[in-house]
Each structure stands twice: as C-alpha cells, then as structure tokens.
UniProtKB/TrEMBL annotation:
This is DUF2470 domain-containing protein. InterPro entries: CREG_beta-barrel, DUF2470, Haem_oxidase_HugZ-like_sf, Split_barrel_FMN-bd. Pfam families: CREG_beta-barrel, DUF2470. One of its GO terms (cellular component) is cytoplasm.
Length: 259
C-alpha cells in the first residue's frame, strides 16, 4: 500500500487535462432543459478541446441541447477515458457555461481544431450549425478506485496534456498482445508484495495506460489475498521520466531486465 501511495503519478490537473485531450471526442453534455422545465437534459455530443482545454462544439440550431444552452448557458460535460470500461477507469465532469462563437477568426480556429479531432465532420459548414465554446469553471475528477477529487479552474487552465499519453495506448496494446510475460515480470520485480508466489501466481497483467511517469496495470491473480480482490489495478512507475517513445522503450527494457 505504501508503495502505491507514493509511486509517481501525474498530478490531478495534468491527469484531467490529458484525459480530455486524448478522449475519442465524444462526451455527455447535461443541460437545464428548456422544454421540460426543472429536469436535466442529456445528450451525447462531439467536442474538441482548444489549447486551453476548453471544449469546442458545432451544434445544429434544431438540437434540444442547443435550445437549452441558448436559454441557460450553464451545463456540464462528462468525459470518460478513451478506453473506459468500468469504475476503475478515469472520467471527469467539467462544469461551466457555453457561449456562441461569433468572430470569423475565432470560428475558423474552432473549425481547424475540431476537424483535427473529427476529420469526417462534413456538417461543420452547414448553414444551420453554429460554433460554441465552453468556459470551464469547475472540475470533478475520478481517476479510479480511491482516486477522486476536484481541480480548480486555474489549475485546469494552466495544465498541459502529458505528451507520452498520446501514444501510450499503442504501447499498451503492443505489450498486452505480445509481451504480457514481461509485464508480469515487471510487476513481480518492481512492486513490493507482488513477488512470484507459486501457490497464487499472477495469471494476467494488462497495461491500461502509459504516461511519462509510468503505467497502470490491471493484475489478476489465481485468487484474492488479504485486502486485494482477485483482479486489481496498480501503479508501475518508471525509474526515470520518459519524454518520448524511445524513452518508454528503454524504461520498459530496464525494468524487465532488472526483474
């Protein structure tokens, strides 16, 4: 437990900013319903974060959520990690106000950013669609079990996405498909309490994410032990910060060889 509590991790603001940046570009927007007063409205919407992490949207004037935010701009956007599968995975709730983007230069910039995330969004030039930007005022974050809290507006706006996390999923997929024994060895050799136990071996170790400071790994043992269930997620930190793909490869090789 002590190792996991002190293992290097991205700070919360960076973690949130990274999740929003590298999400697949869809989230749940909750609005104050105009048609059904007193009830919340919910819509799955496409978005793309600008350089400050503020979500950009292109909405049809006929959509219910468009009518809602024109009447009351307050809303929230719930964004899940790109590979979200359950309660152990990250999600963030951004709260704030949405405003119509009016200037031609601002519209052109929003269009450029949005199409980078959604290259097939042919509707961006439809006449009845308009650009909107969300100003993030409050942030609630759940990074998995026993990792939850709030991030201030200033912390969120000042944070930058973790660079390694952009290509982390490809590294995780490669390791999970071709090198799981190496991941098991890294867990056994680098996390106290996870040493090889022939009576209760680790049967699976799936890397769920990779960032500049390390990896999260979902570990499955033959049976639960103590306070740990049969399957659980743990932090596997790198011995040094990784800045690019080459660094990540070197860190993984170092940890595998050391195990």
């Amino acid at each position: 437990q002590e190792h996991q509590q002190t293992a290097p991790k991205l700070d919360w603001a960076t973690d949130v900013r990274t999740l929003v940046q590298y999400n697949h570009g869809f989230a749940v927007m909750s609005t104050n319903s105009k048609a059904d007063e007193g009830y919340p409205g919910g819509s799955v919407v496409g978005f793309a974060p600008d350089e400050d992490g503020r979500p950009l949207f292109i909405f049809s004037g006929m959509s219910a959520h468009t009518q809602d935010i024109l009447a009351d701009p307050r809303c929230s956007l719930t964004v899940a990690a790109k590979d979200f599968k359950g309660a152990a995975d990250g999600r963030v709730n951004l709260m704030g106000s949405v405003e119509l983007i009016k200037g031609d230069q601002d519209k052109a910039k929003a269009r450029e950013i949005y199409l980078q995330k959604h290259p097939g969004a042919f509707w961006v030039d439809f006449g009845d669609f308009n650009w909107f930007r969300m100003s993030v005022e409050k942030v609630r974050f759940v990074g998995g079990f026993a990792r939850a809290g709030a991030v201030t507006q200033d912390e969120y706006l000042a944070a930058k996405p973790d660079a390694v996390s952009e290509f982390g999923p490809k590294i995780a997929a490669h390791m999970n498909e071709d090198h799981m024994p190496a991941t098991i060895a890294m867990v056994q050799g680098n996390v106290p309490g996870m040493e090889h136990d022939p009576e209760n071996p680790i049967t699976e170790a799936i890397i769920t994410s990779v960032d500049s400071l390390g990896m999260y790994v979902k570990v499955t043992r033959e049976k639960g032990i103590g306070f740990l269930p049969q399957s659980f997620k743990l932090r596997l930190p790198f011995p040094e910060v990784a800045k690019d793909r080459k660094d990540v490869k070197v860190r993984i090789m170092e940890m595998t060889n050391a195990a």
